[in-house]
Design a protein that fits this description.
The structure is a homotrimer of 132-residue chains. Chain A has 132 residues and is α/β, with parallel strands linked by helices. Chain A has one domain (3-130): Macrophage Migration Inhibitory Factor. Chain A has helices at residues 16-29, 78-102, 127-130; strands at residues 3-8, 45-50, 53-56, 64-72, 105-113, 117-124. A four-stranded mixed β-sheet of chain A has the order 2-1-4-5, covered by helices on one side. In chain A, strand 4, helix 2 (78-102) and strand 5 form a beta-alpha-beta unit. The radius of gyration of chain A is 16 Å and the shape is elongated. The interface between A and B is large, with 40 and 39 residues. Strand 3 of chain A pairs antiparallel with strand 2 (45-50) of chain B, so a sheet runs across the interface.
Chain lengths: 132, 132, 132
């Protein structure tokens, strides 16, 4: 974790690979109150999914929408989570500044702290790469 | 919000664009106890995703499944949320009445009130269109 | 329920249809403390979605990631849920044993007990097939 999923209408003309990379980059740069790495690098990922079918707002025009959800394991401070959200939001605002002038688009960014989670298992050969 | 996501097996022969539009339409028609707009039009969207791979029930036949999840921000009354669910369910039942006679299909519709949410940001030029 | 969704990077060379089927099979085999069927067969499904765009870890190499999430209705014991998680994890570990030697991949498996759920409706002709 974080596990970031982007669900969006396919009428958005954006470089989604670059957006994924940039969101990932700001997440793995985050530090906690003691200046330590906030998230494990080997467990951080961003996945983006254009919808096959969609309808937005009053559906009278071809509005665009992008929903960014980050699921994060419990244990971080509210301040650190808010900073992570702000850092991702800054990426989004910068990346879409130009598009906002040309397209009708809504973007929502939310962080959930693993709601209702009762089981958690990891099976990975990525973590050892970054825990040296 | 509401943020509605439909995850379904691709063996369903339905007009998914029309389903998205109709679910959207009933959501933006919802009123609260005082007759006021229950959901902001500019923040309401429905996104549908056929699965690339799937397995359902005992997987002995090509069963179909459709899962409809609406994520809604906190603050609405239980009665209003139940009415929203009933209104969406009515759309689904009407739309799939004919298909139910021909295909083995399960449909589940659930509403979540933003579980575990710790961060929420909106960046949109849709809201101003509808808040006049 | 269970509603299992697999979100993964498309650079994973695995038989995803077979994985879906096998996860489904172990779920419908689960029993409760009294030896009774833990999950309704007609409501159990696994849906898999390769991401269109993604970024993982430090994104310096083409890392793979697979996130498996099972959403389960409330009412099962913690022990039964843990056993379900362990059974799915065993499938994953066996299936990916060979791949782990060749590819850098992270797999996370989590179970959520319907977080924040306020509305739940089923419309299905699958359940009657299995409730005889």
């Amino acid at each position: 974790m974080p596990h970031v999923v982007i669900q969006y209408t396919p009428n958005i003309d954006a470089d989604m690979d670059a957006l994924c990379k940039e969101l990932l980059a700001v997440l793995i740069e985050q530090k906690d109150e003691h200046g330590k790495q906030l998230y494990p690098i080997g467990g951080t990922r961003v996945l983006a999914y254009p919808a096959q079918h969609y309808a937005v707002a009053d559906s009278n025009r071809d509005y665009a929408f992008m929903y960014i959800n980050a699921r994060i394991a419990a244990g971080r401070s509210p301040a650190a989570l808010a900073e992570s959200g702000d850092a991702m939001l800054a990426v989004v605002k910068r990346r879409f500044a130009e598009l906002f002038d040309k397209q009708l688009i809504g973007i929502t960014l939310q962080i959930d702290v693993s709601p209702g989670q009762v089981y958690d298992a990891k099976h990975s050969n990525l973590h050892p790469l970054f825990n040296k």
